Amino acid sequence: MRAVTLADVAARAGVSGKTVSRVVNRDPNVSQETRRRIEAAIAETGFRPNTAARSLAAARSYLIGTFSPNTSSFYHAELFRGIMRGCRALGYHLVVEEVDVEGVSGIDRYDQGLRAMRCDGIVLPPPLSDDAALLKALDSDGVRYVRLAPATDVARAASIFADDAAGVTALATHLWAQGHRHFGIVLGPMDHASTPLRRDAFIAAVISLGGQTADVQVVNEPWQGSLMITGRSAGATLLDSPRPPTAIFTFNDELAVGVMTYARELGLDVPGDLAVAGFDDSDAAMFTWPPLTTIRQPIAVMGERAVEVLAAPAATSRIDCSVELIVRGSTQR
Amino acid sequence: MRAVTLADVAARAGVSGKTVSRVVNRDPNVSQETRRRIEAAIAETGFRPNTAARSLAAARSYLIGTFSPNTSSFYHAELFRGIMRGCRALGYHLVVEEVDVEGVSGIDRYDQGLRAMRCDGIVLPPPLSDDAALLKALDSDGVRYVRLAPATDVARAASIFADDAAGVTALATHLWAQGHRHFGIVLGPMDHASTPLRRDAFIAAVISLGGQTADVQVVNEPWQGSLMITGRSAGATLLDSPRPPTAIFTFNDELAVGVMTYARELGLDVPGDLAVAGFDDSDAAMFTWPPLTTIRQPIAVMGERAVEVLAAPAATSRIDCSVELIVRGSTQR
DNA sequence: TTGAAAGCGCTAACAA
DNA sequence: TTGTTAGCGCTTTCAA
Q1: CB under 8 Å to B299, separation ≥6 — which residues?
Q2: Per-residue confidence (pLDDT) for residue A165, from 0 to 100
Q3: Residue B176 contacts residue B206 (beta carbons within 8 Å)
Q4: Strand pairing partners for B137?
Q5: What's the CA–C1' distance between A57 and C6, in Å?
Q6: Per-residue DSSP letters for B83-120?
Q7: Nearest to residue A299, comparing CAs of A275, A318, A282?
Q8: Nucleic acid strand D within 7 Å of A6 CB
Q9: Which pLDDT score, from 0 to 100, does residue A101 have?
């Protein structure tokens, strides 16, 4: 059986194809009566517009593209959910391309994958939001894109930020109030803009509280295959050092879980001997023991906003979202 | 600047458009020399075939569709990765639609979302692989699909299975050998085919080892918002019961993490007082304390196979994958 | 408010 | 091995 086309509907409703097209595309210039007849014909025939034909004629794909890392992370999963919601709300479909976390090949994956789909917009999660080669390719293709938490050349295109510094400052203040004077920081990927940003905000806060740069030990642990494993290894680096910190702040919750695992292996009591805090408020944070102090950012909402920015005809340049310190047992003694 | 079209390439290479099309589509019936000239012209012009035009003319979308649950789960995340890999390897692009775990609305989301994209194939993860309304819609649209771990009407279309029963039997045997005689099972979603399958396999194994049905307490905990929270609650149901089990087997690792959390709250020693085992071998399994005994299934590989099945011209009816029992500290005393 | 005509850029089917 | 001719099903543009 042949698929129902727009022409079939037109014939049935006794109007031109163009008028049917107007109804389908919500063009206001159609009379009540005509619209009613056409809608009836659409319902009776079960007509579904052919997306490929629409794309070809209108030169738009109705597609939003994004990249997904090849490794589990609450942040990316949650962001992805927000993007899906945004697409659904705005009538787009979402195409995804996998990228490797190490040796990220954003540009290759775009070139050989997403590019062919001619997406109407692309959402760039970190660290891809700072991938110069990729940005250049997108610009040269004239593709619209939104960047999440970029660090470089921030005015280049629309971006979405969380106020990391505010959250980190609140955390440092809380830890200081708990009596901690010697801190450890477990960094995230260095190509992720939030990594130096959170580090610097933490150190600045410690200094403004009366401490010194030397009171903060920073660890940049190489990737070990999973966030928790990497975190465990970073915990070892800090806790086996000559002068171990009494409070450790990690780039995300998964790393914190790893740190807590190592602390347990050493027989340390959290929070008695060691305070641990993460970032993101993933559901894992509620299931460490004790529950993890963390900084919550509205990740899914940021994903939705990203799609809204792409859908909006006028270019929005920058959206800022606020974060919140969630204090739990892992830092409260 | 106008985009480069196939006709431009044809003009430049001094051949017909159809011949360029042949080169692009890897048709073998093109002479070495002609192919070389055309490839050169493609490279020089930077020609990119227009996917919408190809789709329209060839009546295929080059798209694989799938559904993603609105909740974190290692299984789904890993499966998704496998599907992405499969798509990339076979020249497809992946379109995703979000579905709610509770009040699953697979058919609505298909009808209002994916359907319009006319995917060349659809991968149905559980529990959607048993969604009768969705299957019917797909059949009536004539869309090819693969089902993962379906339970009902298994011969209806291509399916991919893991040998759950073998893994569960190995686990029951291991627990029995450790001296356990009284077991708890935390079920997964009841619309997920593997749920009754694993339960029944476990009970059958216990009976064949010399136990009885009454030795296995089964808990079907309602969804509490996250797998770990649900698991904690299920753990409470089992461990606060009049005759608590000494070994608990959960539908997946996240639920096991929840059970272990509750056991810790009770002051129980794992594995001394209580053995806990999960399913999937997620990376969380390595980061519970003690590390979690679990059953590994090749999830990502199953996702890749799913795409291969869709891409294959001849219909494959059934693929079986084997599972493996991974014994760790949570069940070894 | 509605319609007619001309493509959008590619591929299928056929012919040479 | 290569070329020609029709479309694929929709939207755009322009006219009525």
Answers
A1: B75, B78, B79, B82, B280
A2: 96
A3: yes
A4: none
A5: 12
A6: HHHHHHHHT-EEEEEEE-STT--HHHHHHHTGGGG--S
A7: A282
A8: yes
A9: 73
Q: Which of B63, B85, B228 sits opposite A98 (nearest CB)?
A: B85
pLDDT tens, residue by residue, A146-163: 999 998 998 999 999 999
Nucleotide nearest to B32 (CA to C1'): D1
For chain A, the average pLDDT equals: 92
- A223 interfaces chain B, CB cutoff of 8 Å: no
Q: Distance between CA atoms of B298 and B321, rounded to whole angstroms?
A: 7
In this structure, are strands B324-326 and B318-321 parallel, antiparallel, or unpaired? unpaired
Angle between helices A6-13 and A17-24 (to 10 degrees): 110
Please list, in sequence order, all residues whose beta carbon lies within 8 angstroms of the beta carbon of residue B195, skipping any fewer than 6 positions away. Answer: B187, B188, B189, B251
Q: So what's the pLDDT on residue B313?
A: 74
Name chain A contacts of B289, Cβ cutoff 8 Å. Answer: 261, 264
Average pLDDT over residues B194-213: 96
- A50 chain-B contacts, CB cut-off 8 A: 56, 118
In chain B, % helix, strand, coil (3-state, to 5) comes to 50, 15, 35
What confidence tens digit (pLDDT) does each residue in B26-66 have?
988 889 999 999 999 999 999 999 999 999 999 999 999 99
CA of B57 to C1' of C13 (A): 13
What type of residue sits at position A177? A
Half-sphere exposure of A294 (CA within 13 A, CB side): 24
Look at residue A176 in the predicted model and tell me its pLDDT. Answer: 98
Give the 3-state secondary structure of residue B161.
strand
Q: In degrees, to the nearest 5, what angle opens at C-alpha A54 toward C-alphas B116 and A36?
A: 75
A50 touches strand D (CB under 7 A): yes
Strand C contact with A21 (CB < 7 A): no
Q: How far is the C-alpha of A311 from the C-alpha of B47, rounded, in Å?
A: 27
